[in-house]
């Protein structure tokens, strides 16, 4: 059996004095949070575009405009990631267009 006496009291101790968060670490954390916000925005935008394609009565041209707008939104958030968009979301949107508009 492992002796855990004192574990709870150690856990509740305040941080050691004199130990401040380094600025580079704070900058890394801020960058990570910004990246997470961009990813959430991208996910919502792609989900919205897919929902529009499925649920709204659009012409094929209008549907293609929705896909193009979704792609532009993704590239604004993540420049130079066009190939990644095509791999991940392009196939998703292609499948929707093929199923809904009976494309070959």
Account of the 3D structure:
By secondary structure, the chain is mostly helical. It has one domain (22-101). Helices cover 73% and strands 0% of the residues. It has helices spanning 7-11, 23-55, 60-77, 82-101. Helix 2 runs antiparallel to helix 3 (60-77), helix 2 (23-55) runs parallel beside helix 4 and helix 3 (60-77) packs antiparallel against helix 4 (82-101). The protein is elongated, with a radius of gyration of 23 Å. The N and C termini lie far apart (66 Å). The mean pLDDT is 86.
User: What best-fitting shape do the alpha-carbon axes yield?
Assistant: elongated
Oligomer: single chain
Number of domains: 1
Largest sheet: none
Series of secondary-structure elements, N-terminal to C-terminal: HHHH
- Radius of gyration over alpha carbons? 23 Å
SS field, number of helical segments: 4
Number of strands: 0
- Measured as a percent range, the helix fraction is over 70%
Q: Low-confidence segments, ≥5 residues, pLDDT <50?
A: none
Calculate the terminal CA-CA distance, rounded to whole Å. 66 Å
Mean pLDDT: 86
TL;DR of this structure?
This protein is mostly helical and about 100 residues long. Helices cover about 75% and strands about 0% of the residues.
Give the arrangement of secondary structure elements:
Layout: H1 7-11, H2 23-55, H3 60-77, H4 82-101
Helix pairs in contact: 2-3, 2-4, 3-4
List keywords for this structure.
104 residues; mainly alpha; 4 helices
């Amino acid at each position: 059996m492992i002796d855990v006496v004192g574990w709870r009291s150690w856990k509740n101790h305040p941080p050691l004095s004199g130990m401040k968060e380094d600025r580079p670490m704070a900058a890394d954390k801020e960058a990570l949070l910004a990246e997470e916000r961009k990813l959430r925005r991208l996910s919502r935008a792609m989900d919205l575009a897919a929902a529009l394609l499925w649920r709204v009565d659009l012409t094929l041209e209008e549907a293609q405009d929705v896909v193009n707008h979704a792609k532009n939104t993704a590239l604004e958030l993540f420049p130079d990631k066009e190939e990644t968009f095509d791999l991940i979301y392009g196939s998703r949107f292609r499948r929707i267009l093929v199923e809904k508009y009976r494309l070959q």
